[in-house]
Each structure stands twice: as C-alpha cells, then as structure tokens.
Amino acid sequence: MKTENEGGFFKRTSIRYIIFVYFTVTALTASIFIGLSLYSRMSKQMTDTMQEENQILIDQLNRSVDVWLRSIMKLSDSLYYGVVKNADLADESINQEITLLYDNNKDNVENIALFSKEGELLEAVPATRLKTGADPVGESWFKAALNKTENLHFSTPHVQRVFDTGESQYRWVISVTRAVEITEGSSTEQGILLIDIRYDSLEQLFDGITLGNGGYVYMLGTDGELIYHPESQLIYSGLEEENLEAAAEYRDGIHAEEYKGIKRAVTVKTVGYTGWKIVGAAALGGVSLNALKTRLLVVFTVALVAFLLAMINAYISTRITTPIEKLERSVNKIEAGDLEADVYIGGSYEIQHLGTSIENMTTQIRKLMDDIVAEHESKRKNEFDVLQSQINPHFLYNTLDIIVWMIENEKQADAVKVVTALARFFRISLSRGKSIITVRDELEHVRNYLMIQHMRFKNRFTYEIQADEDVMDLASLKLILQPLVENSIYHGMEFMDGDGEILIRVYREGDDLYMKVSDNGLGMTKEQVDRMFTDKTHVASRSGSGIGVRNVNERIRLYFGAEYGLTIESELDEGTTVTIHMRAVPYAETAEGEKIHVK
Q1: 78 and 70 Cβ atoms separated by less than 8 Å
Q2: Cα separation, 50 vs 387, whole angstroms
C-alpha cells in the first residue's frame, strides 16, 4: 500500500523528474556495482602482482647478500689457507700478506686480526695494538669461534672496541671469526682469525630497497636478533617496535599477520650458510601510488559513466514526458472550461491513443452540454407553456361574473370594455406560442389585466404605466409584468385600508432594460422576499395566473444570463418595488422572436 508520504511525493513531482531519477539511480547503482567489482578485481590483481614483485625483489636481495657473504668467506679462506696455515710465526711475519688482502678489500673490511687462544694479539691490520684493558677472550665472537671450531661465525652488528685505532669514534662492524691452527716453530696451537666487516657495506645492499604499499625489508640473525632494519636506531632506542619474535618463527614464503592493527603480508627468505632471514613486510590494502592511481581511474570512470547515463536518461525522459506534458496542458485547458481547446495528439502510440480518447470525450461532453442546454430550455418553455395553459380559472370566472353583472345592470359599455380587455389579454398571452414579444405588447398585456382587475375591485386602487418611446420596440419575455402586478394586487393591497397605488415604469440605461413595478401595499419582510426566490411551490395567488416570481426570475436568467433577473425592495407598511433587469436588445434582432442573442 502506498504511504501518505509517497502519495504526497508523487503528487508534487513531475513524471519527467520521476523517470529521470529512477533511471539515473538505477544506472548509477549499476555503475557503482560494476566499478566496485572492477576495483575489487583490480585490487586483488595488484595485490597478487605486488606480492610477486616483493618476492622477486627479496630473492634478488638474498642473492646479493649471498654474494656479499661468499666474498667475506672467500677472504677468510684466503687469509687462513693462503697466509696463516702456511706461515711459521716464529720465523716470519705475515703482516705484509694480511695488509695486501686488507688493501684489496678495505672498502668492506674494517680490521683483520689474528689472536692466540689466550687472547694475545699476534697480527692486526690496520690496527696495531689492543685498547688498554681490552679482553678479546670475553667477546662473544671470540667465544663462538672456540666453541665451534669447525664453523665460520658471523656476529650481530656491534661496535668493535678492543682495538686502539686512535679515533674518538668506533665503527659498527660484523665480526667474522673462525678457529685456525697457528704454527710457531715445532709447535702448533689454536688461534682465532677475526675479520671485522664494515656494517655499512651490508647497509649498502639494502639501501633503496622498498616494497609495494610502503613496505620495507629487514634482516634477522639465527636467534632472531636484529641485523639490519631501516629504523634500527629507533628500534634500539625503544621509539619503534618490530614483530621480531613472530618473524623469527616464520619459514620461507609469504605469511599474513596483523601487527599494530595493520594487516601485513610478510615474505621470508633464508640466507644460505648463515641462517639469517631476510624479511619483507608490506601492508595489505594500503594506498600506494599505483593503488591511488587505480582508485582515481575507477572513480573517474564511474563518474564519467554516471554523467553520460544522466545525460542519456535526461534525453530519454524528455522524449517520453514531453508529449505527456503537452497533453496535460490540453487537459488543463479543458478542465478550466475551454471545451474548444485543441487536444495534443502525438508521442508514442499509447499517448496518441489517450489524446484521441480525450478529444473524443471532449466532443461528447460538448454535445451532451448542448443537449442539456437545449433540453433545459425546452423544459423551461414547456413549464411556462403548462403554467400559461393552466391560468387560474378563478380569474376567468370572476371576469365573466363582472361582465354578466354589467349586462344585467345595463352597463353594456363597461361590459364591452371588459370583454375587449379580456380578449386582448388572452391574445397577447397566447402570442402564437412565442416566448419573446415587444415591450409594447408586454405593456399592453399588463394594461388589459389592470383594467379588468380595476373594474373587479371596484376602483379600490389606481395604476399608472410610464414608458419611453425608445423602449417600445425592444425585446421582452412574455408574461413577466403580469405576475408582479398580480402580487401587488392580491398580496400587497387586498387587505390594506385605503386606496392602493401601482406604478409601472419602463426605461433604458445603456445596454440594459429596466422594468419597475411599485406599490404602496403592506410590504414584506426580508425572509418573505428570500422565500419568493427559493420556494419552488410559491405562485402568485390562488386567483391569479399561477406563474410565480421565481419562475419569472429563472426565465430572465435563462435567456439573458446569470447577471440579469429580479431584485425586490420591500418594507412592511411601506410597499414593495420589484425591478426587472434585462439586456436591451431590439426585437428585430431576435431569431424571429424566439431567441435573444446575448454576447
């Protein structure tokens, strides 16, 4: 069921707007759905591509670190097998050979040193002596070499403080140690070969390495200790954190994790021999430059499609609704009463059919209205004819009684006057069935009526008719004065004391014709006056013609229009004045005295 709000919305909104909104919303929803699906698909492809690229980058970095480690291991083998193992430290110095190897690798090497197992410095390049109070035996790199003499050991990054370099600052190094055999004369003992690799040589491998979605790469030792991190200083100082424990447990491959509320893809690759792990961490769903470009492209595409669809929808809705709006304007004119308005017929078949139906309906309405008007006029004429044919017989009987009385009293002259007046009265009343007569005939009719009534009431009232000559040939409805005079006689003066007076005055003002019937009778109240126009059963009197005031008023309005008719002014004991207002139309311009043409 349609709600009140929905009904109000549709009542206030044009069909063009509704079609445009529905089409646009539907198209926009479809566009957004397609855009989101496209974006989701592209995002997944980008994520997969990013992870593949990150994996490739980490593999390349792993190979670079492996090459770097192999170069260090090769240097260690050259020092051990090429220098230390073949030399007798009791007879000769190996400083020159060590210096030569150092010079060839000094970009990556900080120090090269040879220690006895008791921690005594036997050879060192470029350092020459230990720092006062230094104890190499207590260093972790020294202990690692003694504990596992068969392996090559790589320490975590640290500051090497055992050598006296004469500098105020110490460099970060990665100490590479191994147990070696030292020959002194006839004895052979165990020693420790140390190579301090500059930490920045390792950093150079990681410099500029970034992953997609703002990712980064770091490296862990075998025990999960941090070897390299782009924010290592902040991590060491406690200002930043890294998920080192979880990364140390990851095997090689791609792992999903959530750290600090951020979902990340963690790629792990183990470096050969050392067991170090290169770890790449990249956020999932983060906004990288490529993702931003993709989003902007998707948004622009959706906006462009929505704009084009809106334009197409506007064109379609206009094509659909314009014929409807034109048809609506035609219907509005018809609704306003202009039944002659042209009905628009155009647009689609349905709208054309609707326009044709409305046009046919308008034609039928016009025809029915014409029929109703004609029927109404015919009904009114028939009513008048019936009323006219039913002239109260009391008037005729009373008139004949007067004539008989006059003859019996030998007043033949007066009898002749009454008979002549009665004949003229009925001649004009019949008028060969015409409804329109001249003002002259209407006044002659009422004059004959007054003459008969004057004799009947034995001169109890006087009457006077005043009319200008220029109104005599104007058209008048038949039998409109006689009912008013009849009311004056029977209702106004029948029971009054003294002589009555009746004045009939006919005059013209511009295009209007006025007839006034005044008497000095008993008068009426306002309620009685109103009842004369509303009471359908009211007639002149029991002894009169039977044609009432209301009938006269309606006949005038029917022929001339709603602005014409009767007005009554009356006061008790003062008298009554009834004014007839008609249009001044020459009788010659009427349709053979049958119809008055009113513009």
Answers
A1: no
A2: 107
pLDDT digits (tens, 9 = 90+) for 109-129: 999 999 999 989 889 998 778
Amino acid code (one letter) for 53? E
Query: What are 505-546's pLDDT values in tens digits?
Result: 999 999 999 999 999 888 888 888 888 777 655 444 444 444
DSSP state of 474: B
CATH fold for the domain made of 87-202:
Beta-Lactamase (3.30.450)
Question: How many of the other CB atoms lie within 10 Å of CB of 108?
Answer: 16
Domain ranges of the chain: 87-202, 337-368, 390-589
Question: Facing residues of 265 across strands?
Answer: 256, 282
3-state secondary structure of 174: strand
**CATH topology classification for 390-589:** Heat Shock Protein 90 (3.30.565)
Query: Using an 8 Å Cβ cutoff, are 540 and 483 in contact?
Result: yes
Whole-angstrom Cα distance, residue 138 to residue 140? 7
Q: For the purposes of burial, counting CB atoms within 10 Å of the CB of 452, is it exposed (0-12), middle (13-18) or buried (19 or more)?
A: buried
CA 7 from chain centre, in angstroms, equals 15
Q: Select from 327, 449, 458 the least CA-distant residue to 405.
A: 458
DSSP letter for 254, please: E
What does the angle CA 190 – CA 194 – CA 197 come to, to the nearest 5 degrees? 165
156-192 per-residue burial string, b: 16 or more CB within 10 A, e: under 16? bbbebebbebeeeeeebbbbbbbbbebbeeeeeeebb
